[in-house]
Specification:
The protein is mainly beta. It has 1 helix and 17 strands. It has a 10-stranded antiparallel β-sheet with strand order 1-2-5-6-7-8-11-12-15-16, with no helix packed on it.
Length: 258
C-alpha cells in the first residue's frame, strides 16, 4: 500500500525568470506472512512474518529561465530524507530495525532549439531506491539446497545520480536525421549480491550488501537518410557503446582435508 502527496507552486520573479518550489512525500507499507513446513513440521527459522514502512520526502527548489520558446534552463537542487523501518519475527523474537538516510543533490534541465533545424537537451537529476522487503529479512531461503539466499536487515536505500544529453538534427532537403545520445549514472550505497561458493559441496550462498563504485556510462547514435524527398532508398545506421561497472563480491570456500 502506498500513499503519495505532491505540492508545487511557481512564483514569477521577472519577465523570463520563475522560481519553482515543490514538496513530495510518499509513504509505503508492505506486509509478508509465509509459513514454511519441512517434512510436514512447521519451521520457525524459515517462516516469514514481517512488516515494512518506508517514508520518502523530497523538497525541491528550481530557478527557471526561458527568454523564448527555443531556450529553457532550470537549475537548483533537492533535499531527500528517507526513513525506513522493518519489524519481523525471527526465531521466536520480535525484532525491529530503522534506517535514516539524507541526500542532497543538484538538478539541471537545459533545452535549446536552433532555427537551422537542430536542438540539444541536457539533464541531471538524482533519486533514491529502497530495498525490497525480502532483501531485508535475515531468513534463510533454502528451497533450492544448492542455491541458498539470506537477507540483510542493515541494508540502506541507495541513491542514483543520472545525467543525459541529446543532440538532434534534421535536414528537410535530404530527409536526413541525426540523433546522438550520451548518458551516465552512478549509484551510492548500491544494493549488490555477495556470493559465497562452497566448491566441495557445490552450494552457492547469496546475501546482499551496500557498496559504492557502481556506475554506467555510454552513448548511442542513429543516422537515417532518404537522400532526397520521395526517394526509393533509405540508409539507416545506428549503434551504441556502454561501459558498465557493477560490483559483485564473490569468494570460494573449500572443505579442509587431512
Amino acid at each position: 500500500q502506498q500513499t503519495l502527496l505532491r505540492l508545487a507552486w511557481i512564483e514569477p520573479l521577472g519577465k523570463h525568470i520563475k522560481l519553482k518550489r515543490e514538496y513530495c512525500v510518499s509513504y509505503r507499507t508492505e506486509r509478508i506472512r509465509e509459513a514454511v513446513y519441512a517434512d510436514s513440521v512447521y519451521s520457525e527459522q524459515r517462516s516469514r512474518d514481517a512488516s515494512y514502512r518506508y517514508l520518502n520526502q523530497v523538497a525541491r527548489l528550481l530557478m527557471q529561465w526561458s527568454p523564448s520558446e527555443n531556450l529553457y534552463l532550470a537549475v537548483g537542487g533537492h533535499y531527500n530524507p528517507v526513513r525506513s523501518s522493518i519489524r519481523y519475527l525471527w526465531q521466536g523474537r520480535n525484532l525491529s530495525k530503522t534506517n535514516v538516510v539524507d541526500h542532497l543533490a543538484p538538478e539541471m534541465n537545459f533545452y535549446y532549439r536552433s532555427p537551422s533545424g537542430w536542438n540539444i537537451t541536457a539533464q541531471y537529476t538524482g533519486s533514491s531506491r529502497q530495498p525490497a522487503l525480502l532483501n531485508l529479512l535475515p531468513i534463510i531461503d533454502d528451497t533450492d539446497p544448492l542455491h541458498i539466499r539470506v537477507g540483510n536487515p542493515s541494508l540502506k536505500p541507495s541513491f542514483l545520480h543520472q545525467a543525459t544529453a541529446t543532440f538532434f538534427w534534421f535536414d528537410q532537403d535530404t530527409q536526413t536525421q541525426l540523433n546522438l545520445q550520451a548518458q551516465g549514472q552512478w549509484e551510492l550505497h548500491a544494493m549488490t549480491d555477495v556470493i559465497e561458493i562452497d566448491r566441495t559441496e557445490g552450494v552457492r550462498r547469496t546475501s546482499i550488501s551496500n557498496v559504492d563504485g557502481c556506475r554506467q556510462f555510454g552513448g548511442a547514435w542513429t543516422v537515417t537518410s532518404d537522400f532526397a524527398p520521395e526517394s526509393r532508398w533509405t540508409i539507416d545506421f545506428q549503434g551504441d557503446i556502454v561501459h558498465n561497472r557493477r560490483s559483485e563480491e564473490r569468494f570460494s570456500r573449500n572443505a579442509e582435508t587431512d
